[in-house]
Amino acid sequence: MTSVSDNGHQAPMIDLRSDTVTRPTPRMRAAMAESFVGDDQYGEDPTVNRLEAMAAELLGKEAAVYVPSGTMGNLSALLAHCGRGDEALVGDESHILWFESGGPSTLGGIPLFALKTDRRGRLDPVDIVNAIRADRPGYPRTGVVCLENTHNRCGGVVLNLQYMRQVREIAHDRGVPIHLDGARIFNAAASLGVPASVVAAEADSIQFCLSKGLGAPVGSLVAGTGEFIQNVRKQRKVLGGAMRQSGVIAAAGVVAFETMIDRLPEDHARARTLADGLAAIDGIRIDRESVQTNIVVFKLEGTQDHAEFIAGLKGRGLLVSNYGLRGVRMVTHYEIDDAAIASALGIVNVALADIRETVRVPA
Ligand SMILES: Cc1ncc(COP(=O)(O)O)c(C=O)c1O
Q1: What is the 3-state secondary structure (H, E, C) of 147-194?
Q2: What was the pLDDT predicted at 2?
């Protein structure tokens, strides 16, 4: 395992922008090269069939379907839950609302009704009760309630099982299903100390990504009942996401299931080390309690320009993401080892000191 990526011809960089930047492991590449494939639209790709069966079993659901991206996973699931004009309840900080180009409303005629999200990624259960529509001619039907676990924009925080159960009961009592955007459900499960199936049991459908902490190059899965997944297959076709010999890429997903789930706590431990190190640096404000998985978000105190700070990090070999007003995001993943964390902290220290010197920000 390496601490830095060599990024082609450029100087080595420590890439903490996201867990999506990981390249396939040697075992993944070997499995891809040797994969048995067939036409998946005839149901004849043995590797895709295996990946889907493994996903269903891991999540404790009847069936699963392989889709090219998390965005398509969420969209195809919402299309399967909702008819045109049905409303989807989402959090106002959710990935579905912020980063998926309004797909549900653009392509499905599904308006997104956004509820306030708290710092821990939760929607207020009372708001959910009030937002689920009564059966009146003037109201759209509420087609689905969406949760996100772990929660990306809230810094990788984990929804606990009691909360998820409470929301499921509220929704089910009113005849509304739950969709979980579980792009990082295995991180959530690792943090909660339970199998992913226990988290998935609190939702009717789940989308999760192979291409994030699990390190595979492509793809997500949607899991649910057999009947629901048949519908998602149809929606995937409508969206142009049904593939042919996709076993070539699914093979890396099989290896991800076999080799990458159990190591996620390492990423979480490194994220905590990073957070502790950042907290000790003058000029950085960080809520360490929100560092529950592999995402670390912090802010700069005072008037430091965080664009300049981020550029300063990059110039010294550290890539991070911009995160809202004066915010910075760092994500650990399997290509980041202890040495990379130590180097990253050193670079942050130097870059901040440099900014302080040039702008002479009061201590
Ligand atoms: C919570 C969450 N959901 C969905 C997605 C979308 O996944 P993709 O980029 O594969 O479309 C992401 C991507 O970062 C995500 O963080």
Answers
A1: EECCECCCCCECCCHHHHHHHHHHHHHCCCCEEEECCCHHHHHHHHCC
A2: 40
